[in-house]
Amino acid sequence: EVQVVESGGGAAQTGGSLRLSCKASGFDFARYGMGWFRQATGDEREGVSSITWNSDEKFYRDSVRGRFTISRDNDKNTLFLQLTSLKPEDTAKYFCAPVRTLWPITPLEGRVPWGRGAQVTVST
């Protein structure tokens, strides 16, 4: 089955940290650039960060640069996002997906269905 499964979300206080994981299956994960997206309640989904297939290049939206770190383990078909110095505005559901373009980040529609996401809630 072609899918991605996000995990690692939860509740954190401002300034706290979380680590998200995205386990991929059913497609050749190592061949694709991958990205993280997030969607806050009432807002559209937005790109957060992306990484090339070989981890040579990484991209971040301005609001998370220096606080979030994207990485991947192709042997384990897993994508990661380390979130530090969290802010209430980081509260959202986080999704991973293969990307069509790294930045501006756009998902590769139709290849892998969106997962259920991982909820991140940051309180003051």
Secondary structure elements and pairings:
Blueprint: E1 3-7, E2 10-13, E3 18-25, E4 34-39, E5 46-51, E6 58-60, E7 68-73, E8 78-83, E9 92-101, E10 106-107, E11 118-123
Parallel strand pairs: 2-11
Antiparallel strand pairs: 1-3, 3-8, 4-5, 4-9, 5-6, 7-8, 9-10, 9-11
Give a verbal description of the structure.
It is a single chain. With 124 residues, the chain is an all-beta fold. The chain contains no helices and eleven strands. The strands form two sheets. Strands 2, 4, 5, 6, 9, 10 and 11 form a seven-stranded mixed β-sheet that branches. It has a four-stranded antiparallel β-sheet with strand order 1-3-8-7, with no helix packed on it. The protein starts with a strand and ends with a strand.
Briefly say what this structure is.
By secondary structure, the protein is mostly beta strands. The protein has strands at 3-7, 10-13, 18-25, 34-39, 46-51, 58-60, 68-73, 78-83, 92-101, 106-107, 118-123.
Helix/strand class: mainly beta
Structure summary, number of beta strands? 11
Biggest beta-sheet profile: 7 strands, mixed
Shape: globular
| Percent in strands | over 45%
Count of runs of 4 or more consecutive helical residues: 0
Report the average pLDDT across residues.
97
The poorly predicted ranges are: none
What's the helix-strand series?
EEEEEEEEEEE
End-to-end span in angstroms?
Answer: 40 Å
Helix content: under 10%
Radius of gyration: 13 Å
